[in-house]
From TrEMBL:
Protein's name according to its UniProt entry: EKC/KEOPS complex subunit BUD32
Cited function: Component of the EKC/KEOPS complex that is required for the formation of a threonylcarbamoyl group on adenosine at position 37 (t(6)A37) in tRNAs that read codons beginning with adenine. The complex is probably involved in the transfer of the threonylcarbamoyl moiety of threonylcarbamoyl-AMP (TC-AMP) to the N6 group of A37. BUD32 has ATPase activity in the context of the EKC/KEOPS complex and likely plays a supporting role to the catalytic subunit KAE1. The EKC/KEOPS complex also promotes both telomere uncapping and telomere elongation.
Domain Protein kinase: 94-371
UniProt cross-references to InterPro entries, sorted A to Z: Kinase-like_dom_sf, Prot_kinase_dom, Tyr_kinase_AS
Lineage: Eukaryota, Fungi, Dikarya, Ascomycota, Pezizomycotina
Subunit comment: Component of the EKC/KEOPS complex composed of at least BUD32, CGI121, GON7, KAE1 and PCC1; the whole complex dimerizes.
Example of a GO MF term: protein serine/threonine kinase activity
Species of provenance: Pseudogymnoascus verrucosus
Catalytic reaction list: L-seryl-[protein] + ATP = O-phospho-L-seryl-[protein] + ADP + H(+); L-threonyl-[protein] + ATP = O-phospho-L-threonyl-[protein] + ADP + H(+)
EC number(s) reported in the record: 2.7.11.1
Top-level lineage group: Eukaryota
């Protein structure tokens, strides 16, 4: 079940001078778009429109595309007219087996059984992985075109990375059944929950060592920044007892234009360990460019809420190790660019290819013209 906090998202809006305002909202649970229209007083910002939609969504017919609301947030009118549907066309890239590294296999969408919807464009699925063998996996895809390049980027990076005990492995490329277009990909489901989901297990010093060594390897061996290190993207493998990192959606080749200086992996490791141990996430609830890792590093005491497993010292040793590692990495960063020993490389998002669609009595393709 999708966390209610992340169920709705409004990526764009129409705000003419004087109103009315229209917020186009994606319901990630029902995979539908609903436009909320009202006066600037009723829906001045997208959170206000989402709050109103949350009140009414369970009473709306699935065919409803738009609701108009009063200043008090009550529904004045509804529309199921196709012209009021805000859904964007998603131009999925065409699949070409020649572009796929050896050893990676495909899966048709109809070969998967949906088990649950766990996040924005993230489902838990089950599929057959060999004769009589059922695989539980996580299917990641894109419902809007502005996320397509991120999904493509992550898919390519996951395929390019060699198998690693500290990284959730790549699963299958998922293809549309109508024509061979890449919808997304799967990774195996690892039970036990992320650090954000499971906040009761005692913390192991070894997990800190594994995370820092993995970040070093990503930088110095593979030449990439992860750029989204957080407790929500780390699980503990129940078989090995070691951490596994996932979600390479924002990852970038070091030195490329995709590197975000405000998504520094070193700082993110410090934020992550602090958040796991203290359950305090407020330092990263603000815009990335306003986040201050020094406030954590210079804090006299951390208010630790999670037990630390005995054997390798406590919070003092953890903070000392973190400080020494971060200082060493920052010192290296001042000495010039990273020279990765096994630099990863992957293709950029492919050029668009025509997709035929029908409008009334004429056939068109997305590149223009009719037939």
């Amino acid at each position: 079940m999708i966390d209610p906090t992340y169920r709705f998202w409004s990526p764009y809006e129409d705000k003419p001078n004087g109103g009315p305002y229209s917020w186009h909202i994606l319901d990630c649970d029902q995979r539908r778009w609903v436009t909320v229209t009202g006066s600037p007083k009723a829906v001045p910002r997208d959170p206000d429109a989402i709050k109103i939609l949350r009140r009414h969504i369970d009473q709306l017919d699935p065919a409803v595309h738009k609701i108009t609301v009063s200043d008090e947030g009550d529904i004045v009118s509804i529309s199921s007219h196709p012209n009021d549907e805000a859904a964007w066309f998603v131009h999925y890239p065409r699949y070409d087996p020649r572009d796929v590294p050896n050893g990676h296999t495909t899966l048709m969408r109809t070969q998967m059984e949906e088990v649950d919807r766990v996040g924005h464009s993230v489902d838990m699925v089950r599929y057959e992985d060999g004769p009589g063998k059922s695989q539980l996996g996580i299917f990641k895809y894109s419902m809007i075109y502005i996320h397509l390049d991120r999904i493509w980027n992550e898919l390519q990076i996951m395929m390019a990375l060699p198998k690693h005990e500290l990284i959730v492995p790549f699963g299958r490329i998922v293809l549309d059944d109508v024509e061979p277009r890449i919808l997304g990909f799967t990774v195996p489901f690892i039970p036990g929950g992320t650090f954000d989901e499971n906040k009761t297990r005692p913390f192991r010093f070894a997990w800190l060592q594994q995370l820092t060594s993995l970040v070093d390897e990503l930088h110095f061996k593979f030449g990439i920044y992860h750029q989204d290190i957080a407790g929500r993207n780390i699980v503990v493998d129940p078989v090995t007892g070691k951490i596994r990192l996932f979600d390479f959606e924002f990852a970038a080749k070091i030195g490329s234009p995709s590197v975000d200086i405000y998504r520094n992996d070193i700082d993110q490791v410090i934020f992550t360990i602090y958040e796991i141990l203290t359950l305090d996430v407020h330092f990263r609830e603000i815009a990335s460019w306003d986040q201050d890792v020094k406030a954590i590093e210079e804090m006299a005491e951390w208010d630790v809420k999670i037990p630390i497993e005995a054997g390798n010292g406590g919070i003092k040793e953890i903070r000392s190790f973190l400080a020494e590692w971060a200082a060493g990495r920052r010192s290296k960063a001042q000495n010039g660019p990273v020279n990765a020993t096994s630099q990863l490389d992957w293709p950029g998002f492919p050029p668009q290819t025509p997709v035929l669609y029908t409008s009334r009595d004429r056939a068109y393709n997305i590149e223009g013209g009719s037939s």
